[in-house]
Amino acid sequence: MDYVSLYRRFRPDTFDKVIGQAHIVKTLTNQIASGRISHAYLFTGTRGTGKTTCAKIFARAVNCLNPINGSPCGKCEICKQLSNPNNMIDVIEMDAASNNGVGEIRELKESVQYRSDYCKYKVYIIDEVHMLSGSAFNALLKTLEEPPSHVIFILATTEVQKLPQTILSRCMRFDFRLVAIDQLVALLEKIFGELKVTYDIEALTQIAIHGEGSVRDTLSLADMVLSYCGKHISYADTLEVLCANDFETLNELGNAILSSDVANALRITEESLKNGRNTIAKDLANYFVDVLEIKNAETKELERISANQRESLKATANKFSNYRLARVMDIMANMENTLRFASQPRIVLESNIVRACELVTETNLEGLTNRIKELETKLKGIEQNGVCVIDNNAIAPEVVAKATKANKVKKETKKVISKQPEFVSDPDFDANKILSENSLQIEEVEVFDKVEDIQDNSNHELQILLEKIKGKLIESDESFMETILSDIDIDCYNLEGNKIIVDADASIKSFFNMPGKLEFLKQIVKDALGEDFDIFFKEQAEVKKLKEDDRIMLADLFGNKIKYT
User: How many domains does the chain have?
Assistant: First the structure.
């Protein structure tokens, strides 16, 4: 097969060609230059970040006769011999996924005893080492801890959490990082320059973004795009190959989601899916990351966006809060993971987009938090801009006249009602002899109006206190106790100084008589209101007795003129 894929053709053969791993390259080259070489190394990190590549370079560098800045020279006899892929004597590369048993490790232990004929070190590269069985790990321990002086072990894995601590403690660990987008774009520019292929910089940026920090994935995608486009890598063709959305579509969809425009968001999603753009979740997550970064770090340079795109993102960022952006971004990121295992991905996609649009309508704590934030935003706007006062002169005269007339009728009706004599069943009772021109009766009406206002204010104040207490119970994960207090009618609560008296049935009282319940509620009340309160629960029987006492008192005041139903 004549053609060699890009990631194999352009695999680095010296440390200076490795990108994105400067911290590892510097450490390894310094060890080679100083001669302080360890007996065991562990390379861990995401796929395609250079673990096996660096292991092979290091194996040649430690045996090179004339290393250049810690890298193999590529010219000496040893370098030429080790560059031959058929040389499996001095650099042994072992795939632990298919050689994961005790038998393979036993053979390895026997082979390490023999010194190399040509090289100074015999290097064992064990790839995907986390696939070894438990018995194989145990068999490797002693050899890994005290190998012969001419042996170096390099273990490579993408899942370091699966390795036993006994293995980790015997190795010098290096964590390979994801490669930045600008570094991947620079690599693509260099490769396409050598291949004499023209390109749009936006196309290379899209390839690097979809590579997700992996050099191998990026070059594999570049290989696919190159096969589709030919001699010129265009932005539109790249989007077509990657099934990705352009910035304008993402910006429109992102604004629709943030503005809670469900209809428009679903319309754009429908059009994108019809055009074969099935990376909406990933594209939206990246879009909201850009919006969040521009909102909070305006001076930060983002290589992956143009100046016009930056202005559009800035306009979007200024309209919404960090919390709103972060929550939507979180939904998009979680949705991407869910879509991998979904049997009906479109339903998952559209339901999550609607959920991101309608965050404020959720009935959970998150939805309530969003509503509170919306109210805070509106109140802040009122504080800054003031309340809009309507000028009566600007209202149509007929509207003002109609409202004035209705108000006058209402006042006259109330006056007539207030002057109606009290109806009593006793025919000998003469109200005119007791009341003088109904003035006393009118004053009584006004007093009762004031009493009703006081009662309303008291209920309102009590309602506020109860909401604070119930909110504290929710924060303490005591939703059951909060439900019990919510089911009790507001009229059953009485506040007398630092006493809260609750009229409740026997079951509720017995619940709060359980050990620790009432003390816990008192502590919650103290935390919510900032002071100590005594709490009493009265059963319905006691309430009935109080009502009977009230009847006796009313009978003493009014005699037989009061009838009970």
Answer: 3
